[in-house]
Design brief:
58% helix; three-stranded antiparallel sheet; Methane Monooxygenase Hydroxylase, Chain G, domain 1; mainly alpha
């Protein structure tokens, strides 16, 4: 099976980008799932995470976690480049809500551009890339991964295992 032609590969890489960033920064989640594309509807993905999680994580890390999904889909699934920077992107909209509402639009745009740059740098780390792609492949095969299974898969990469063992 060619993953690039799978109808859910973009969603799998998107969700894997969020998940590897959450694991790296010590953010707990219950599960991650994808839903196969059906006629007329896009692929859907979701990471089940507790409300208020962003309050316990530094703002730059929240930005990277939020941007990592769209950036991963661009890098590994050929999703339209620059989508995260557009106003209609769901993750970008979420990040705009999470950042200070008294920021003017220009400052918000700069913050989002830095989030994208941070996510790009993060996902270009070979160990992160390898773990994220393994997570995406596992999502393609299973459609849903628990937190424990995501950790087990990510731990296959020694540098990621070391970080998880260190307690982020």
């Amino acid at each position: 099976m060619n993953l690039m032609t799978s109808p859910t590969w973009s969603t799998s890489t998107h969700e894997a980008g969020h998940v590897i960033a959450m694991l790296w920064f010590g953010v707990e989640f219950e599960y991650v799932t994808i839903k196969a594309k059906t006629e007329g509807l896009p692929s859907l993905g979701h990471v089940a995470i507790r409300r208020g999680w962003a309050d316990s994580v530094a703002a730059p890390q929240v930005a990277i976690i939020t941007a990592a999904g769209s950036v991963a889909a661009e890098k590994w699934a050929g999703s339209r480049p620059g989508r995260f920077r557009e106003a209609d992107d769901a993750d970008a909209a979420i990040l705009r809500v999470r950042i200070k509402t008294d920021m003017n639009a220009t400052c918000q745009d700069r913050f989002i551009a830095r989030a994208v740059d941070g996510a790009l740098e993060f996902l270009e780390i070979p160990a992160i890339r390898d773990a994220a792609i393994m997570l995406a492949v596992s999502l393609e095969q299973n459609t849903t991964l628990s937190h424990a299974n995501a950790v087990r898969i990510a731990r296959i990469v020694p540098e990621v295992a070391w970080r998880l063992d260190a307690g982020a």
